[in-house]
Specification:
The protein is an alpha/beta fold and 285 residues long. The protein has eight helices and twelve strands. A six-stranded mixed beta sheet has the order 1-6-7-8-10-9, with helices on one face. The protein has a six-stranded mixed beta sheet with strand order 5-4-3-2-11-12. Strand 3, helix 4 and strand 4 form a beta-alpha-beta unit.
């Protein structure tokens, strides 16, 4: 008879969980949540005293209002301008909300169909992509406790994609700190209000140099508290839900060129490439 060896560390863990009345499932969930909240902050080293990047946001791939023609234009501009990298502040996929009637707004049903479509599109982008998950992406994790993290799946499927986190993430480019943010609240009475409050929320020593905000489907730029801020637009037209809430969609993407020195951003130029809703043709009677 072989004597079964015991693991002292495992025994101590089991006693602790029993004493604190924590189930093994609760412990695993807490560990997963802790790891998920860790925000990556890659540092890019680009030669010279300037760099340029492109951004797109709120693509909502899988929704019938996703503007594939604008995505194609984004790829064409990227190949022409040759940015150093691309930023995406969230809502890659439309997701599955569970809202009554939502499935009738979709061209691609379910996670596998939507992520495969995104994989085909994103692999056309010729430079590294740094992105975060938005609230629509997180539906696949939270609805029914599915646990699927879109950004991690994109990282496995897309050659150039780098997942920075959920809801927020930061990238450092030669000492220039760029912060990506995706809100979870509603739109405001003024397009600039949400970005203004976001910039104001940072303490003086913790401010990024540049902010790219997603979620609100607005396109604008500002310079407040020495922070260059951008609402990053959308590649999705106005959905029926948005029209019902009287929310406009600012369709388009951007190109940003940054000159910097030891003190931070020396100068910045921004080009926005707008898109437009196609006018519906009148019905012939």
């Amino acid at each position: 008879m072989v004597e079964e060896k015991t693991n002292p560390e495992l025994e101590r863990l089991q006693k602790y969980l029993k004493r604190e009345k924590i189930s093994p499932l609760e412990a695993i969930t807490a560990i997963h949540s802790s790891k998920k909240q860790q925000i990556k902050q890659p540092r890019l080293n680009i030669s010279g005293k300037s760099f340029q990047y492109m951004y797109l946001s709120d693509t909502h791939i899988g929704h019938k209002s996703f503007k594939e023609n604008m995505f194609d234009k984004f790829v064409r501009v990227a190949k022409k301008e040759k940015p150093d990298f691309v930023l995406h502040p969230g809502d890659h996929l439309e997701g599955m909300s569970g809202r009554p009637g939502h499935i009738y707004e979709l061209t691609h049903l379910g996670f596998e169909n939507q992520i495969k479509y995104a994989e085909e599109l994103y692999n056309q982008i010729p430079v590294p992509i740094y992105g975060i998950d938005g609230n629509h992406d997180e539906w696949y994790e939270k609805k029914g406790n599915g646990g699927v993290i879109v950004g991690k799946n994109l990282e496995r499927r897309v050659n150039n994609y780098h997942n920075l986190g959920q809801g927020e993430g930061t990238i450092d480019v030669n000492g220039i700190k760029i912060y990506l943010y995706h809100g979870a609240d509603g739109t405001a009475y003024a397009d600039s209000y949400k970005l203004q409050k976001l910039v104001e929320s940072f303490t003086s020593g913790d401010k990024p140099n540049i902010i790219h905000s997603g979620h609100y489907h607005k396109a604008l730029s500002s310079f407040t508290r020495n922070v260059y801020g951008f609402e990053s637009g959308t590649l999705m037209g106005q959905s029926r839900w948005m029209r019902g809430k009287k929310i406009r969609a600012h369709i388009g993407f951007g190109l940003v060129k940054v000159n910097y020195n030891s003190k931070g951003v020396d100068s910045l130029t921004h080009t926005f490439y707008p898109g437009f809703e196609e006018r519906e043709k009148p019905l012939k009677i």
